[in-house]
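Before the break, one more example. Copy the sequence into your notebook; we will annotate it together after we see the structure.
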Amino acid sequence: MFEKALSGSRGYWTWVVFLLAVIGVGFLMYLRQLAVGLGITGMSRDVTWGLYIAQFTFLVGVAASAVMVVLPYYLHNYKLFGKMTILGEFLAIAAVCMCLLFVFVDMGQPFRVMNVILHPSPRSVMFWDMVVCMGYLILNVLISRVSLDSERKGIAPPRWIKPFIIISIPWAISIHTVTAFLYSGLAARPFWLTAIMTPRFLATAFAAGPAFLLLICFLLRRISRFDVGDEPIRKLAIIITYAMAANLFFLLLEIFTAYYSGMSEHTVHFNYLFFGLGEARRLVPWMWVSVTLGALSLLLLFVPKWRNNLRILPWTCALIFVSIWIDKGMGLVIAGFVPSVLNQVTEYSPTGPEVLISLAVWAIGLLILTVLYKIALTVRRQV
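Here is what the structure looks like once it is written out:
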């Protein structure tokens, strides 16, 4: 079926060439990083995770969000999600590939990635994060391949694939749960040391991921004849509403706990995010933008008239995506390091090469997504 991705309109090939150009520039920057080291990034002794890990954390949630359409369709027989399910599974594949690539570039030297495989440590959360991510990728590749092939042949999917579909549902939750454990298990980082980290991760995943999926559905409706229908879009918007409400509620819980208890080791990180520490204020405007966009999007979702308006909904989804990308990416990761365990304030800003490498990874993910969607849409037109 991959030969179907080798034919397309001029717009399709223009988009593919553009993505390849971005990948090429990013690859050249990565070669420079291999030669010079991670010193070309904005990371330092005090801030050891930066833009790469921020993108990894965010994209794990996007990958896990596929469960929001898989679960109603397969477990509750909600057939209206039928056209949307394959889109969610393909989005999960592209997102997991980007996650793995961001870890790859963050390790500095490629051979270091092999240490997790050659020297596995079951006591390491990183080891289990690799296991669940790779397992989730394999499950989605298998399920989507079998489902699409059955659709192309005009037959029902084989019965043996159903157990793998059922397994993929809790597995989707596990990939973000284990990723949250990477943060909440670090006792030296009070900002991350909270039991509500995992629920927050899942809430953001089930808001940002489906929001991105809806943006894709609107885009496909505009540039192709593929239409998932208005009703499933509105149903998924309701799911996003509850997830976004839970996300903001959990954030308020953390803020209340930190400030009401008066524990300075917790409040200092929130002070840095929203008010700055002295001259260190780089993330302050970003976080206020994130909070403003999140609150505005939730208001638009809570009012049924606005939520059901399919002209307003794409903008609402864009607001959610950007809000959570800022908060869960740079806000969450960087604030855990500022101030450091020695109470030193060392700010972080991504460098040009770091940004270009990150854009290249995103371009690889979008290229994978483009090819997979091209195959799926071609098969459905033929059917």
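The mean pLDDT is 87. The chain has 14 helices and no strands. Try to locate both features in your own notes.
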